[in-house]
Design a protein that fits this description.
alpha+beta, three-stranded antiparallel beta sheet, globular, 36% helix, 490 residues, 12 helices, Deoxyribonuclease I, Chain A, six-stranded mixed beta sheet, 3 domains
């Protein structure tokens, strides 16, 4: 839903998660987004118990081009859960207070006292203030004494509650969007029900740091004709008599491979420049999902235009069917991937990691330079060496030495096998994608074997292969990418 609706931020209450490493938090965080959370505290004897469900909890999913840092409150409320964060873009910032008051607890004077204390701390800030969440109070019931007291409290701090439509299946307003009177909340609407609560959508006039689309150069594979490419590849120097290439050095062979492959690809699949979304849709999202989603959006627009109960019921019914379709597609996709990976443990683990959302957190938006990384980790190594300088060296009584006098020739059949077993991953420095090399491995294997044998026999490692693109990886559970200490050294 996050990527589908192109949301900048999504606040979720009653997440029922145990801690920051929750599998469900990872699964709901798409590529290009991050998550900050506040789990309901568990007693030590209940931690990691499989049969225990941790109710409550708050999570905020946000785009990674927005900086979100937790804002510590002096008071720790006991009557409601909270997550207070500082949201900063390149041009603007605001304080966001996410709240959840459990519905199984009665509204008490202590709740209003603690909420007053929190608002007093935040009211001194000169930045815009936004309060969102689930109060479990019938906001629409003006005769309710608790609603009256809440309205008086909001007036005291010059705050306005913007939600005017029912947000709960029981027909009441439980969820709130509160801001200062001078903060413009635009296009607020109550969407479809994803549980017993509906999604509340709204816009804030904050300038984002950067566009979510970027210009990328890629090859137009739709126009690629495999048979024509194969014929030209077979006629190229890469498939010529190897005796004519015997005098070439390893660097010359690598340069020849790059030149020939680039020339062939430019002919059969030229490069084009397109705008690419920063956030990709789920891998199981197909044409059927897209068509169904369009029908649901049309039903929602019809209801917004007519405000008829029949149109609303039609929209909600189709929305529920869409969510069921999403769940079916999701389960079928991952079950198929697991079945395909049963005999390959590495592939199976990669599939399972994708299912639970335990993917590598790459920091493409990092503002740190290579020199800053190098200096930081060099200083870290120096500190370790200095702290262990007084430690005695280990006494190694026996050491063994092995001599390697010659290499066995690499045969084309071995090259074909190795290429076939390689994962379909490619680097930006590769002139041809791995899947294409796999497809024509029998044609390319003799030349690749010649290139390897030339390198081994001369002891020369091609200079082209000494270049790499290094992407910083954040440590597990890291939330602040601005700190160099939060990146992995390896």
């Amino acid at each position: 839903m996050i990527a589908d609706a192109r949301l900048d931020m999504l606040l979720i209450t009653e997440t029922w998660h145990e801690n920051t490493e929750s599998v469900w938090l990872k699964r709901i965080t798409p590529n290009g987004y991050k998550c900050v959370d506040a789990a309901r505290p568990l007693a030590s004897e209940h931690v990691h118990k499989a049969e225990l469900r941790n109710y409550g909890g708050i999570a905020l999913v946000y785009r990674d081009n927005v900086t979100v840092t937790q804002y510590a409150l002096g008071a720790k409320p006991a009557t409601f859960e909270h997550l207070c964060v500082d949201v900063t873009t390149e041009h603007d910032s605001l304080l966001l207070l996410c709240v959840y008051r459990p519905g199984n607890q009665a509204v008490t004077a202590q709740f209003f006292n603690e909420l007053t204390s929190v608002l007093e701390q935040l009211s001194v800030q000169r930045r815009p203030l936004l309060v969102c969440g689930d109060l479990n109070i019938h906001i629409d019931d003006n005769d309710d004494v608790y609603v009256t007291r809440l309205n008086e409290l909001l007036q005291t701090f010059d705050l306005v509650q913007h939600v005017r439509e029912p947000t709960h299946a029981a027909g009441h307003i439980f969820d709130v969007v509160i801001s200062r009177s001078d903060t413009v909340v635009q296009q607020l609407s109550v969407g479809d029900f994803v549980s017993d609560h509906a999604v509340v959508n709204f816009n804030l006039n904050l300038r984002r740091s950067a566009s979510t689309r970027q210009l990328v150069t890629r090859r137009s594979w739709r126009n690629f004709i495999a048979s024509d490419f194969e014929a030209d590849l077979a006629a190229s120097r890469l498939c010529a008599d190897q005796r004519s290439l015997a005098d070439l050095s390893p660097d010359d062979l690598v340069a020849l491979y790059d030149t020939e492959m680039t020339s062939l690809l430019d002919k059969h699949c030229p490069e084009v420049t397109t705008r690419q979304k920063q956030c990709k849709l789920a891998p199981w999202f197909d044409a059927e999902c897209r068509a169904f989603r369009q029908r649901v959006r049309a039903a929602e627009r019809r209801f917004r235009r007519t405000h008829q109960d029949a149109d609303k019921m039609s929209w909600l019914t189709q929305s529920k069917s869409l969510h069921l379709l999403y769940e079916q597609k999701n389960r079928l996709y991952w079950r198929t991937n697991i079945d395909d990976s049963k005999r390959e443990s590495r592939k199976l683990w990669r599939t399972l990691s994708s299912i639970i959302g335990d993917t590598k957190n790459t920091s493409n938006s990092s503002r740190h330079t290579t020199d800053e990384f190098a200096t930081f980790f060099a200083n870290k190594v120096d500190d370790v060496r200095q702290s262990t300088s007084s430690t005695a060296l280990p006494d190694v009584a026996v050491t063994t030495r092995h001599a390697l006098n010659e290499w066995e020739l690499v045969m084309p059949a071995v090259v074909v096998k190795l290429i076939g077993n390689a994962p379909n991953k490619s680097c930006q420095l590769d002139v041809a994608p791995t899947w294409l090399v796999k497809q024509y491995s029998r044609l390319l294997a003799p030349f690749i074997a010649l290139m390897f044998n030339a390198s081994l026999s001369t002891g020369c490692f091609p200079a082209k292969f000494k270049h790499a693109i290094v992407t910083p990886l954040e440590k597990k559970g890291t939330r602040d990418s601005s700190q160099l200490k939060n990146y992995r050294p390896v």
